[in-house]
Design goal:
Blueprint: H1 4-24, H2 29-36, H3 40-53, E1 56-60, E2 71-75, E3 81-88, E4 91-97, E5 103-109, H4 116-134, E6 141-148, E7 151-153, E8 158-161, E9 169-171, H5 173-181, E10 185-189, H6 190-201, E11 210-215, E12 219-225, E13 228-229, H7 266-278, H8 291-303, H9 307-331, E14 335-339, H10 350-360, E15 368-371, H11 378-393, H12 397-400, H13 410-415
Parallel strand pairs: 3-6, 6-10, 11-14, 14-15
Antiparallel strand pairs: 1-2, 3-4, 4-5, 7-8, 8-9, 11-12, 12-13
Helix pairs in contact: 2-3, 6-11, 7-8, 7-9, 8-9, 9-10
């Protein structure tokens, strides 16, 4: 008869083994034993249970020499899938991933209706379509991770405020998705989701102290200290875009004056281009209501050598460099990673960022500034990683008795 202590140890061993496969798989049983330090008996027993539960798959490996064929174990891509959604003012991104954050389905749409009900319904439809596109039945999905901008109450799944979304205050995001789709849901700040993705498979895998900056129409930040995301006393840390750099500066979308975002963001470039058009400095046929299209037009003119448009990006790079320099002086990170849609135009502003660092930080020439290579799905993938972390922290299939369920099962979600 197994004791409670034995079951607890077995659950802990199962979590260690599963996490090892997430990070380093595919692996043979012998490789798992070497990496985890577990006994051969423990590895064999847990792997057998995981295979029976459908958590893992195994395939024979090709050998270059005679001998017994080893089998490589990997996370099953047809079971225990996760959905990630990035609710962002510039569009919605949805992904389906496995527990190793490998993307199976990816989609992106412009927002059709900015009222909160319309936006949430569009996101729910995208999720339903992604589940169908995966070819995996809905019962094999663990849950949904949602990344949002602004102020977030992660514990209660509520988006408290987003300055770039109208009518977006105290939105019970997780409650909506749980009731609408009957799947558990977790909520995460968008830049925290992106830094998780960066730590998992991006430029900052080995860094324990880093700054991640999301640069698009707005400006956000996430801070990792000693390998953990720093969220502050009540989850409000990282509002880099709303650090005041000039009290007499232009009005920001948050209502304050002289914020970093009012000097370094895509929306600032658009605003100054429109002002320049009124003054006769810019002759581009700006649409005034299609932000991405206008930004592409301005960038094209800058690359073709137009002094006014080129200056918009260079000025943004200068202010961004000043902000990053202050972060480096205060926080001493190993690396600063810049992600977000505006990295597509990094050739127009990144040199100015580096020049400011060289002249304003004593070791500026040695500061590692990198552009994220993860693309537009980074926040959505990061949201699935947050969900996966909750799964793992809750134990792998408690008592080895069923599918992974990090925050209640599907029946729990229906009752909420």
């Amino acid at each position: 008869m197994r004791t409670a202590k034995h079951e607890t140890m077995r659950s802990q061993n199962a979590s260690v083994l599963f996490q090892c496969l997430r990070e380093f798989g595919p692996l043979t049983r012998h490789e798992l034993q070497e990496k985890t330090g577990l006994s051969w008996g423990a590895v064999s027993s847990i792997v057998s249970d995981f295979l029976a539960m459908g958590l893992l798959t195994e395939k024979p490996m090709q050998l270059c020499h005679p001998g017994r064929t080893p089998f490589a174990l990997d996370i099953n891509q047809q079971s225990n899938l996760l959905i990630g959604m990035d609710l962002h003012a510039q569009g919605l991104s949805c992904v389906v991933t496995d527990m190793r954050a490998r993307t199976i389905v990816s989609s992106r749409e412009n927002i059709e209706n900015f009222c909160r009900t319309g936006l949430l319904e569009q996101a729910a439809r995208m999720i339903e379509e992604a589940i169908l596109a995966s070819g995996v039945e809905a019962s094999k999905f663990i849950g949904i991770g949602v990344a949002v901008q602004g102020t977030v109450d992660t514990a209660n799944g509520i988006s408290l405020h987003s300055p770039h979304l109208p009518e977006w205050n105290d939105v019970p995001v997780c409650e909506f998705f749980q009731n609408r789709l009957h799947l558990p849901c977790v909520l995460v700040h968008d830049t925290n989701a992106m830094v998780l993705a960066e730590k998992w498979s991006g430029k900052a895998r080995s860094a324990r102290n880093l700054v991640f900056i999301r640069l698009d129409m707005g400006l956000g930040m996430s801070l990792v200290v000693d390998n953990s995301i720093y969220t502050g006393a009540d989850g409000g840390a990282g509002e880099f875009g709303h650090m005041v750099v000039n009290p007499d500066g232009p009005k920001c979308t948050c209502g304050n004056y002289g914020c970093m975002e009012a000097y370094a963001s895509g929306r600032t470039i658009l605003q100054r281009a429109r002002e320049g058009k009124k003054m006769g400095l810019c002759d581009l046929p700006l649409t005034l209501n299609e932000e991405n299209k206008d930004l592409q037009m301005i960038a094209r003119a800058a690359r073709e050598g137009s002094a006014f448009e080129k200056g918009l990006f260079e000025t943004m790079g200068m202010y961004l460099g000043v902000g990053i320099a202050n972060l480096i002086i205060m926080l001493n990170p190993e690396i600063v990673v810049i992600g977000g849609d505006l990295t597509a135009y990094s050739d127009l502003f990144l040199d100015n960022v580096r020049k400011v660092l060289f002249h304003n930080v004593w070791n500026g020439s040695r500061i590692q500034i990198e552009l994220s290579s993860l693309g537009t799905d980074a926040a959505a993938v990061g949201a699935t990683l947050m969900l996966a972390e909750q799964v793992l922290s809750d134990g792998i299939a408690r008592q080895m008795g069923g599918l992974l369920r990090p925050i209640g099962n599907r029946e729990d979600a229906q009752e909420q």
